[in-house]
Amino acid sequence: MPSNHPTSGIAPDTSAPTLLTAALEAHRNGQLTQAETLYQQTLAQAPQQADALHYYGVLQYQRGAYQAAAALLDQALAINPHAAECINNRGLIAAALGDPKAALQAYQTAAMLRPDYTDAWFNLAQALSRLKRFDEARACYDTLLTLEPGSADACFSYGNLLNAAGDASGAIERFRQALALQPDFTRAHVNLGSALGNGGAYQEAEHHYRQAVALDPAPAHLVCLGAALGMQGRHDEEEAFYQQALALDPEQADARQNLAWLYLKRGDYLRGWAEYAKRWRPADYSAITADGIAKWQGEPLAGRRLLIVGEQGFGDHFQFLRFARQLEEHGAHVEACVREPLLEIIQRTPGLKRAWSGPPRGHYDFWVSMMDLPFYLGTELSSIPADIPYLFTDPEKIAAWQPRVEAAARHKRARVGLAWQGSPAGLPSRMMPFATLAPLCEDTDIAWFSLQKGPARHQTDTVPASLRPIDFTDDLHNFADTAALIMNLDLVLTIDTGIAHLAGALGKPVWIMLPVGADWRWLDQREDSPWYPTARLFRQLAHDDWPAVIARVREALRTTFP
Question: What percent of the chain has pLDDT over 90?
Answer without folding.
Answer: 82
